[in-house]
Amino acid sequence: MTDDKISANKAIDAALHLDGDPQKVRAFYDEWAKNYDIDTTNTGYVGPRIAAKLFHQFDRSERQNLCYSFSVLDAGCGTGLVGDELSTLGYEQIDGFDLSDAMAQKATETGSYREVKGGIDMMQAAQHYRPLSYAGVLSVGVFTLGHVPPEALNVLVELLRPGGLLVVSTRSHYYDQSNFQEVVDRLIADRQLHLLKLVKDAPYNNDGDGHYWVFRK
Hints:
alpha/beta; 7 strands
């Protein structure tokens, strides 16, 4: 990764220059947790809202009788922004996990989650949850520079029930600089995922756009 400035916000810019080492990422977010919501609000972060609405849109369109009691996993939940959005939309059984214990504690304090676990590396999440556990999985703000490799998608697929929805955001520069599309193509070719919708170059925050992916397993 280059040393070029990515964000005008110092904390966000530093986050986007992490090297993907889980211990370093965890330490960084443990320290940032107390100011995370302020920093992201000040940069116009809308990723959680857009992703939650996309999840709701496709979930609702395929259910004759709306039922929000099925389980949803917020993978890389941070301080709970996605959980808040899902709760507002009526979802009740929301679990979350994050690499940072401090961020997970913030998510717990929102009251939007049934359970939140901290200290979980997304690449190792299948060791903490049973396969095929969730009817819905969302991961917002995680597939970004310096955080997780695109292969983390494989882990999320393991946790999703057949027929379940997976909604993921990718920062545009992450997509351009990684093999994310290659991983997606392989999962689709192997019939593990079906792409329902891709919203490219959509609002993410004031620093740039993002892509939003909706898959059916």
